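User: Look at the shape:
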Amino acid sequence: MAIPKEYLGAIVLEVDGREIEIESYQVDDDTGRKLVKTMNRTGRPSGFTQGVGEYSLSLTAPIPVDASEEVDWASIVGAKLTHYPSTTTGKRISFLGCFTLKVSEKYQVDNEAKRDITMAAIKRVNE
């Protein structure tokens, strides 16, 4: 009988060492490459150019009733975001030089109040 594989499950997110309650977390890695279109007989692009890559982080966090527990998302500049698996296997990943681009609030009839945060990071490090 084959041993079942373990897959990465929930993560824990820290901002500058403080554990943050989040509902969802998404990382987009834009490589910065751009398609180069040239006029040629084939009518197809001939290659790409290397641009500047960037990391975009999207988080959704519930809004706590107690304002003292709320993270001041809008003022985050130069932070370190670390996510690590809730199991003992898997690698920690840190994003360095994080800063907030946009903070918005979301209210729905059947759900709790939520805050959507868009951030950018300078560097990604596998620890």
